[in-house]
Structures are given as structure tokens and as C-alpha cells.
Design brief:
Number of helices of chain A: 15
Helix content of chain A: 25-40%
Strand content of chain A: 25-35%
Largest interface: A-B, 66 and 65 residues
Oligomer: homodimer
Number of domains of chain A: 3
CATH architecture of the largest domain in chain A: 2-Layer Sandwich
Structural class of chain A: alpha/beta
Radius of gyration of chain A: 24 Å
């Protein structure tokens, strides 16, 4: 059988990794796929650099549409990043009857519904294992490995940059700004780190996993997103003293409320018990914890980014797509796990309706009675307290009072915090971090 | 599209779980698969009990061959266990052109080559996600998720019974016999626990993973197998004091020797650094750590056994098989990851040729010079020492000397141990446990 022909859009870190791994392991890959997989055309901004990577046998062009419109190309691999140009290119590739493999989570989180519908209409596949948690085959696990299950929740460390920063802050007791600078120097954080540190990248990935887990459309605009840039070193320290670690988690979960079923979709710093396996995922590693009714808890761990780990996912998709390139589309795994005519419309819940536990840090003048005031406000709001810690943060005058609450509605805690901040003994804002037991 | 018809051979724990999960989640499963999956016939020893589980709508028979020979049945699910009868039934089902799903690791570790060849000949699939690590979709990860990679090693906690026993021994400081008895009372260990505690079950699963990882035939007879029944509580304690945990690991790995490439295939108690994620897998949970060239380390964690976790894997296979029931067999994932005509014949290495590190415990009369003798013997054998610990085991007279070695060939350590045991100060046998850093 003739090799399948692949056109690459973009040959940066992941593109070069994809080319190199396909070259290095071409024999093993062919022995598995039953057919050769060859990159025959590459679109790149820097033609000379691209030629330096792929050598003489591969056509290098400046115009990505030349790849997408080339009738010789069977599969287009989109590794450009961003939204608008990739959207156009992917839709054009689909319109031309080509299969697509992409690592672009932003594209799918925002335009996934449109893209998957177009692919469905043309009977082609858009594969995207590389879009979530790099080398960890979590899309495959959720979409194929757990088909027997009613999935209850997915909670993931799905951004390596922030996990690296949080690990360093905890291990070395450093503050956010210092560690961010180090991470940038080491290449773990970009020059403009906003997408990572503010949780946007994690929310893109979570949005995709949520759609697959629950059979709902991608709805990035409904995600609640809170990053780690406001996290203070002392909160990480206090959390540890209470037996917890702080991780930037993406959480999506089925919830039943008075008004029916809803889906949580949220990214924020989260206290989790230090004894949990996922709490021990350190550095730039990723891990996704899935709760499902038949299988219980399962966890998937590995590198979430980088040239070859991401290439590993791109190539796994290429092999899958190659195997089923010419079968009846009905035989393939649906893009979002459920058949397109079998999606549901369960609503994403507003954040105020979420139920979770909380870590509260209240910075107070050391006055008699302040603890009584705090506990009374919480008791009046129906919020019970799980643990209390009182610490001198070092200024010798004022105190940090840390409270861990039991589960309550987010809007309740917001109301209680407003009252707490109005107490005369309380200085500034209350620090609030959500807490999940993940049991 | 009409539902696909499934016949169940055996309706014990896993069979009942499969029936129940398929019933409970039938809507979600149909929405994913695009087609209903119905168990229409069950073969059981206890007909009344079987009828009690499946109700009136399902035909219950005593003769499993009646299922296998029923032209109405599309997929046969084999959950009988054992070797000979399942082999006959599975081969007959294949000969009748039916797809097969099995959870039977013993069957595949011993007769896999014959069964897969028969399936290949008839253009049907034998799916076996449930045979390894229950609910953890590790077969899918190895066979499809990591197709880009040259897999270097697989190391797994793949027997829940032994991991439960080792966790209890460590946490409570109890000895093996006491914990085994408790495990039997709790239902974590069988009345005859030999297959679990002697490592046979783990070796069955490891054999299957090894074949998939490296593209070699299943070769259970070449596996080195050592169980946990000889492990002493004090070795677990000493290991912990040195920063290690003892786990029953199944390890399969590519190795280069002077005579070329070889494959390690071995199950034995293993010291691993306590800081590794896999060292923190406790109780009856399973985890598999894979090292591969592009993706690096990845880990898969979940329940390894039990009714519904195993059913989850059986049903995931049913969905996969259903999707591709009628496609050209060439479009399906090959049974052992590599196309049947693309397998290799890399030899399984004899255990004496393996290179690893060792934990040695030498029980000695407290005599001057014994440490000098020990270290001289090891130095003469070219074995360097990484750590030493000296402990009084409690008898107030004699000493335990614990040595951690650097890497050496297994035959070297065996020769050195023989010399050590001949020292007049040494009492009894040297305890030897292999040590892997898994870095």
C-alpha cells in the first residue's frame, strides 16, 4: 500500500518534533500502521529554516493554502496556533475532503463546534489528541477507553507552566514573581505568559475534555477562569501545614441542583489533600483524574507539552486517521465521543451556583473577639468550619487567620466574605482559594 | 441500525458487572457507539442464579458451545477463566466468524499466539483490554496512544491483591501471613491465593504488555516470576528507612547486551524510590509506568480488578468491536500492536543476564571484621555499594546489615551472595531484593 501523504502547516517546536519522530521511528510506525506515513509538504514562514529541518525531499512553501489545496495531500497537520488563520485553513482542508490533525486547543475550544460539524458533513476526521495534555493519551482514554461509563468528573493539572511555578513556589518558598522570572529563563514560561498563568490555556483544554466527557458542545465562553498570578507564597505554606497542596486545576463535573442537572466548568487554584496521587504531580508534568461510575477513579500522567511529547500525540492521531482513512465515517469514533445527533444540552452552571469547600485567609489586627466575629458570620451563613490555623506572618503585629470550610454554595461564601471584610479588625481583602477533596 | 448481539460465557463477578453496566448505561453507550449493544444469550453453570441476574429477556443456557455456535450472536464475551475450555470456546467462536472479547489473561499469555493467528485468518477481532489492569485502559494506551514511540520499558503494579498486602504490611508493620489472612477475610485475596501472591497473575499480564510494547509473540514460559510470600516485614521497614518502597512490579524492557538486543520479562518484589509517583500507589490499585522515546514517562492508574471496573474494559472493547465489526480487518488495530507480518523475534533474556541494583540483607553475628569481609567480596565482584544500614532486629545479639548496590549483572550478585553466605559470621541465607530507580 502506498504511503499516506501528510502536509504540515507550521514547523516550529511541535512541527519539527513531528517530522523528527516520524523519521526516526518510521519503521516502527509503519509496522504498526500497516502503511507508511510521509510528510511530503510543509508550509513555513521561514523557508530556509524549514528546509534545514526537513531536507531536500520535502516541498517547502510559504503559503499554507498551497498545502491545504494540494490534491496530493491526504492529511493536513495544523500546528500554526492562534485562531483565525488556522480556522480558515482547517475549514478549507475539510472542504477539500482532507483529514485534519491539530494540536490547537484554542482553535477547538472556540471554533470546535463549527469545525466538527464541517468535518461531519464532509465525512472526514479532525483528530486532536495533541490539543490536551501533550503526550498523555487522555482524549483516547475519555473518548474510547471509558465508553462504558457515565463520567462524573474530570479534574486535571493541564498546564505545565503553572504546575512548574507552583511546585517551585512550594519547594523553595519563593514568591510568584521570582519563580515566573526563573521559569521564563528556563523556557518553561513564555515571554508573555498571560495565557498560561491566567488559566486560559487550561480552560481551552478543559473545555474540550468537558465536551467529550458529557456529550455537550464546546462552550469556552461559559468557563470560569482564575489564574495563579495572585497566589501568595504564604498561602502555599499554610496549605501545606494543613495537609494540602495548591494546584491549578481544571475541573468539570456533573452536578444536580434544584433546577436540574448542570455541568461545572472551572479553572482555578485549588487546595487538594497532599496524600492524593495528583497532589504529587510536580514540575511541568500533567495529570488528569477521571471519576466515572463503573471504573471509579483513574488517572493519566505524563508530559503535557514539549516538542516530542506533543509530536507523539500528533503521530498517534496520524496512525489512527491513516487506519480509518477510507472507511465509512460512521465506523470512526465521533469527534466529541457521542454521535453528533446524540449530543445533549445540559447547561454550564454559573460559578455562583457551584458547591465546593474553601480556604479563607483573613489578615487581622490582633484584637480580642475577631475569631468570634468570623465564626459567627460563617455560622449565620450556614457555613461550617473544618479547620482553623492562626499564624503570625512575620510583621509581629497582625495575624493571619486561616479557615477551611465545609462545602457551601459559592454565592454564600461571597456574601460571607463581604461581611468579614467589613469587620473593623480585618485588614484588606480576604484571600479565598477553593478546596476539593477529590475523593 | 439493529443492535449488535452479544453472547456471554460465564456470569460471575465480571459477567454480572458487564450485564449490569450495559443495562444501566445503555443509553450513554448507544449514544457513543451509534448502535445498541445487547446481551441476548448467557452460558452459566448455575442457571437459576444467571436468570436472577439477567431477567426474562435473555436466553440462559448451560452449554457454552450453544452460545459460540449460535448464528445470531455477533460477539462472544469469554469470562470463564482457566485455560483449556476457554481456548476451545474462543477458537470455535473465531472459526464461526464471531468477534471475541475476553478478560482472560492466563488464556492469552499461554495461547495468545494461536488465538490471534486464528482470528487473523478469519478476519475477526479478539479484544482484551480487560485482561490487564482491569479498568485502566492500558492496552489502548500502549497499542494506540503510543504508536509514535519506540517503547523502552513498561513497569507495572498489575496485581491488586499483592499491592494491598504490601501496603498493609508497610502501613501497619504486620507480617505477610497476618495480612494475607486479613486480605482473604476482606475478599481482596482468594482462598487459594497462589496465583496472585506468587506473581503468576502479574506475569500473565506483563507477558501481554511485553508483546504489545515490543512487537514480539507472547512468551509466558520465558518470564521470570518471583512472588511476595517470602517478604519479611523488616525488609519493608528497612527499605522505608532508606527512602524506598517495596512493590511487586512486572517489568519488561529493551536491553542491549554484548550479544545484541534482548527483552527483559520479569515479575518480582522491587525497591523503588518512595518519591516516585508509582511508589505511592496504595491498596488494591494498579498503575503502569511506560518509558518511550518521544513521550518520555507516562503513567496510567486505576482499579485493576472488581466487577464494574473490569466490566468497564469489557464494554469499551464491545464498543470498539461494534464500530469496526464489518470493516476490512486491515483497518483495525492489530492484536499485538504491530501488523502480524511485522512482528520481531528479539529474544527474552535469561534472568542471570539482567542488570539491576540490589538490596541485600545479611544477618550476622556481631563480629569485628564482618563488614570488611562483605565489602571485599562485593568489591572483588566489581559491585559498588550505594548505601549501608546496620540494624538490630530485636534479638539483642545479632545484626542485620543492609547493603544497596549499584547496577550489576544478576549472575554477579548470585556469585557474590554465595561467597557471603560462606562467611563464618553470616547466619543463614542472604535476603536479596532487586532495586529499580525507574528514572
Amino acid at each position: 500500500m502506498k504511503p499516506i501523504k501528510v502536509g504540515l502547516l507550521g514547523i516550529g517546536t511541535v512541527g519539527a518534533g513531528t517530522f523528527n519522530v516520524l523519521q526516526r521511528n518510521q519503521e516502527d510506525i509503519r509496522r504498526r500502521a500497516g502503511r507508511g506515513i510521509e510528510i511530503t509538504m510543509v508550509a513555513a514562514r521561514n523557508l530556509d529554516k524549514a528546509r534545514g529541518i526537513v531536507g531536500a525531499g520535502v516541498e517547502v512553501v510559504a503559503d499554507p493554502f498551497a498545502v491545504v489545496n494540494n490534491p496530493e495531500i491526504d492529511i493536513v497537520v495544523e500546528l500554526i496556533g492562534g485562531y483565525e488563520l488556522p480556522r480558515e485553513l482547517v475549514l478549507k482542508a475539510i472542504a477539500n475532503g482532507k483529514h485534519v490533525v491539530t494540536a490547537n486547543k484554542a482553535l477547538l475550544a472556540l471554533h470546535g463546534n463549527e469545525i466538527f460539524a464541517a468535518a461531519q458533513g464532509k465525512g472526514v476526521t479532525v483528530a486532536f489528541e495533541a490539543a490536551v495534555a501533550g503526550g498523555v493519551p487522555i482524549i483516547k482514554a475519555l473518548r474510547e477507553g471509558l465508553t462504558a461509563n457515565r463520567i462524573e468528573s474530570v479534574a486535571g493539572i493541564i498546564n505545565g507552566t503553572t504546575n512548574f511555578i507552583l511546585s517551585e513556589m512550594r519547594e523553595k518558598g519563593l514568591d510568584f514573581a521570582t519563580v515566573l522570572k526563573q521559569a521564563q529563563e528556563l523556557g518553561y514560561a513564555e515571554a508573555d505568559p498571560t495565557f498560561d498563568i491566567e488559566g486560559v490555556d487550561a480552560a481551552h483544554k478543559l473545555t474540550i475534555m468537558s465536551a467529550i466527557a458529557f456529550g455537550i458542545p464546546v462552550q469556552f465562553d461559559k468557563a470560569y477562569i482564575e489564574g495563579i498570578s495572585q497566589l501568595q507564597a504564604r498561602d502555599i505554606r499554610y496549605a501545606e501545614q494543613l495537609g494540602y497542596r495548591i494546584k491549578l486545576l481544571g475541573i468539570t463535573r456533573r452536578t444536580r441542583t434544584e433546577s436540574g442537572e448542570g455541568i461545572e466548568l472551572r479553572v482555578h487554584p485549588t487546595l487538594i489533600p497532599a496524600s492524593r496521587l495528583i497532589a504529587n504531580v510536580e514540575g511541568a508534568m500533567n495529570a488528569v483524574l477521571v471519576q466515572a461510575d463503573a471504573v471509579g477513579a483513574s488517572l493519566y500522567y505524563g508530559k503535557g507539552a514539549g516538542s516530542e511529547p506533543t509530536a507523539s500525540a500528533v503521530i498517534a492521531d496520524l496512525v489512527d486517521v491513516t487506519r480509518l482513512a477510507t472507511v465509512d465515517p460512521y465506523c470512526r469514533v465521533p469527534h466529541l465521543a457521542f454521535q453528533p445527533n446524540e449530543m445533549t444540552d445540559v447547561a454550564i452552571m454559573p460559578m455562583a451556583e457551584i458547591t465546593t469547600s474553601y480556604y479563607l485567609r483573613v489578615y487581622v489586627k490582633d484584637q480580642l473577639g475577631v475569631m468570634a466575629d468570623l465564626t459567627r458570620i460563617l455560622a449565620d451563613a450556614g457555613i461550617s468550619i473544618d479547620a482553623v490555623l492562626q499564624k503570625e506572618p512575620g510583621d509581629q503585629v497582625n495575624l493571619d487567620i486561616i479557615l477551611l470550610t465545609h462545602q457551601t454554595r459559592e454565592k454564600n461564601i461571597i456574601a460571607a466574605i463581604e461581611k468579614i471584610e467589613n469587620l473593623p479588625a480585618v485588614i484588606g481583602k480576604v484571600t479565598r482559594i477553593r478546596l476539593e477533596t477529590l475523593s
